[in-house]
Amino acid sequence: MRKLGILLSGRGSNFQAIFHAIQSGKLQAEIACVVSNVPAAPGIRFAEEQGLPAYALNSQGIPRVQFDQQVVRILRSHAVDLVCLAGYMRLLSPEFIDAYRNRILNIHPSLLPSFPGLDAQRQALEYGVKIAGCTVHLVDEGLDSGPILAQRAVPVLEGDTEDTLSARILEQEHDVYPLAIAQVLARLD
Ligand code: GRF
User: Fold this and answer.
1) pTM of the model
2) 50, 119, 120, 166: which could join 110 in a potential S-S bond, CB 3.0 to 4.6 Å?
3) For residues 103-112, b (16+ Cβ closer than 10 Å) or e, as one string?
4) Ligand 1 test: best mutation among 9, 13, 14, most atoms within 8 Å of CB?
5) Atom of ligand 1 nearest to the CA of 88
6) What confidence category does residue 108 fall into, taking pLDDT thresholds of 50, 70 and 90?
7) Which residue, judged by its Cα, is nearest atom 6 of ligand 1?
8) Is the dihedral of CA 126, 127, 132, 138 positive or negative?
């Protein structure tokens, strides 16, 4: 069974969607470990409740390369095949990306390459786009950049707020991320 390493910093709803996709047999994989760089992240509590190997680290004040070495060590100790960023609010060092080249996925709440970075849904609303959405992509050294694997379009509705649009995008995130992971796993050698 292929092993996933989940990295998160907060709520962890995408992680939960991956977890449930595995539970229901839609995704053939195993969550080998969950790592948070924010000790109080709700997502890491969920991992603990499920009895998954959970690492609540604190990245504050630690140089990026040093922190990433620690995370890579954890991922390697669990023989992780694929790293899934799920609301991980940290850029990865080139060393991390090299260690898992083409084996790191991210989900972002916009139709990339539009609106990378923070508050993507707000950026889209402010720009006035009529079609928003989400993207699963392979991670490279840039911010929310790298080859696109899957996207879902979400129409912007009259009267949408950041919250209402984000909620409809999130529904699509939860559906598309496990599917994209399954596709990548099927192609891993
Ligand atoms: C999601 O919108 C994801 O696209 C972005 O950060 C958010 C994380 O939400 N990268 P959650 O922690 O998975 O609930």
Assistant:
1) 0.97
2) 120
3) bbbbbbbbbb
4) 14
5) 10
6) very high
7) 87
8) negative
**Under a CB-based contact definition with an 8 Å cutoff, are residues 2 and 28 in contact?**
yes
**DSSP letter string, 32-56:** EEEEESSTT-HHHHHHHHTT--EEE
Encoded tokens for 79? 């023989």
Question: Rg of the chain over CA atoms, in angstroms?
Answer: 16
Q: How many C-beta neighbours within 10 Å does residue 91 have?
A: 15
Compute the distance from residue 11 Cα to the ligand 1 centre, in Å.
8
- In whole angstroms, what is the distance from residue 17 CA to residue 175 CA? 8
Q: Residue 69: which residues within 8 A CB-CB, separation 6 or more?
A: 95
- Tell me, what amino acid is at 29? A
Of 20, 78, 108, 137, the active-site residue reads 108
pLDDT in tens, 3-22: 999 999 999 999 999 999 99
Active site residue 174: no
Residue 13's H or E segment, with its range, is helix 13-23
Residue type at position 47 = A
